[in-house]
């Protein structure tokens, strides 16, 4: 029989949930946002025997209490959408803490299958788990797996299908609380039993949530019922704490019966590696060396493919299209639009695709291995200097990929002033969209030291972010430092499949942007560079030249006061890749007759010196971010004031830093 099954993956952060999601769905997944919020939503499809399975990857969360957007999203999906099976991923190396979420899921009364992940690591640590006993006590199937090695995934899916088929017979453990609490649970449950509005919910779970003063559940009550619950809450002191204690008592009982741990702590490979990588003296130099290697690889390996792709766009494709257009007699204007505007503009960006892929591949390896979590720990001391903690460095690291999800991830910061500081400094972290600009200028002006030059930009971005954070903490936000407690996941060997999926997700976004935003910008730029109020015009007399010349004096003290650079920076607010596509058009890369990147580099060399080129890259690094980031800042701060402040202060910081670099450099060069 062919069934359609909806399953939801639920688990703590760092439990291997995403690894299992990738193992199940492969490339058959798509990413969006949950309705009404900006939390990422991942769904994918898989097939097991005759069953079509839709897999939803819920946000990683430690509990189903509505204290964060992620927790609300995860719980609302399970409660309101009613997936056929909830697949709870539990980290076998940290089973005590992970079981708290498991008990909450069981208490919901939904069909649950527990995937006991990282079982290979737990065995290496001497942890022995009686899966059958654990399953019997919980009343749900428990399947040991290793998602990273794809071990026992078939058995796991078999249990999911079995639970789906037998869900009418499904029964789970009832968590027994203190007698006084049980009495109150039954009283509240009896009152809501008669209300038809709550028929779709587990009444016992609702009663417990109401006694815990759960705001989301309390909103569903009318005034009379709310008053009854309030009286019940007041009759027992600290009822929330007693309910939590009841769960942890059961977890302690579960672990004592089903889990055996070694009497003495085993020094794991992760512990040995951490002694070096998180050492207070060696940690930051090692991080710097790794990042330098990443950028060295980005340029030296990516450069192998750059010329090939460049020749394809600038000569081969442009030549084919040019001949085809001439053969059908298209006008010179349309010919120029297609060859110079579209192919030149988009090709000018896509030529750097190998560099971007290598950068994303390296960052994905560092993230999936568990090293990036250590970087937050390493940077905690430096972050404390600016009144933040290492947790605030995690969004900064994410900014190396894209500032939009990085800014969204600041929600994990509990202190509102810390969060606002993190949002305001995050755009200084160099996103992947800026890389084509660096690659272009580094290849043209710093061929022998391209990796080192770009590495210096990333380090400069971090230093400027930390400096501005310090200024904000001394002036605008003077709250006390918040504590930083973080669980370091064990080191893992990234899977090729998982890494490919991560890289493809990011590259796909880049390609979509090339086919939409950059395409539109290239067409628009071709128009403003080819026309003025009198009609078709020479480049120097075009709309674009007028606009560029009007704003060029602003950039003259920075060393690049030509109208082409000025116009490129203005359009770069749409998307940073547009800076390159526009320069490709204006400096002749889009013209097939101009040849390849060597001609383009020669044209750039006539407009920039090494010093002004570096100042230009610094300005691109630090100035006003793209419209997507600006919109995210507005959404996350819910404040036009802070959004406008972000736009203008970042432009000001970029102008000052680039000006200092250029003017001081002129004294010595």
Number of H/I helices? 31
* Largest pleated sheet: 7 strands, mixed
Query: What integer value in Å does the Rg equal?
Result: 29 Å
Q: What percent of residues adopt helix (DSSP H or I)?
A: 55-70%
The structural class is: alpha/beta
Mean pLDDT: 81
Globally, the shape reads: elongated
The tally of strands reads 11
Spatial order of the strands in the main sheet? 2-3-4-1-5-6-8
Unreliable runs: 32-38, 589-596
Taken together, the total number of domains comes to 3
Protein name: Ferrous iron transport protein B
Function: Probable transporter of a GTP-driven Fe(2+) uptake system.
Binding site for Mg(2+) 2: 23, 25-26
Binding site for Mg(2+) 1: 22
Keywords for this structure?
669 residues; alpha/beta; Rossmann fold; Helix Hairpins; 7-stranded mixed β-sheet; two-stranded antiparallel ribbon; 31 helices; 8% strand
Q: What would you say about this model in short?
A:
Mg(2+) 2 binds at residues 23, 25-26. The chain crosses the membrane at residues 281-299, 337-366, 386-408, 420-446, 452-472, 510-531, 543-560, 607-630, 642-664. With 669 residues, the protein is α/β, with parallel strands linked by helices.
Kindly describe this structure:
This protein is α/β, with parallel strands linked by helices. It has three domains: 4-169, 3-Layer(aba) Sandwich (Rossmann fold), CATH 3.40.50.300; 179-260, Helix Hairpins; 283-477 and 502-668, no CATH class. 62% of the residues lie in helices and 8% in strands. It is built from 31 helices and eleven strands. The strands form three sheets. It has a seven-stranded mixed beta sheet with strand order 2-3-4-1-5-6-8, with helices on both faces. It has a two-stranded antiparallel ribbon with strand order 7-9. Strands 10-11 form a two-stranded antiparallel sheet. β5, α3 and β6 form a beta-alpha-beta unit. α23 (496-515) packs parallel to α24 (517-530). The longest helix has 45 residues, at 283-327. The protein is elongated and about 85 Å long. The model is unreliable at 32-38 and 589-596 (pLDDT under 50).
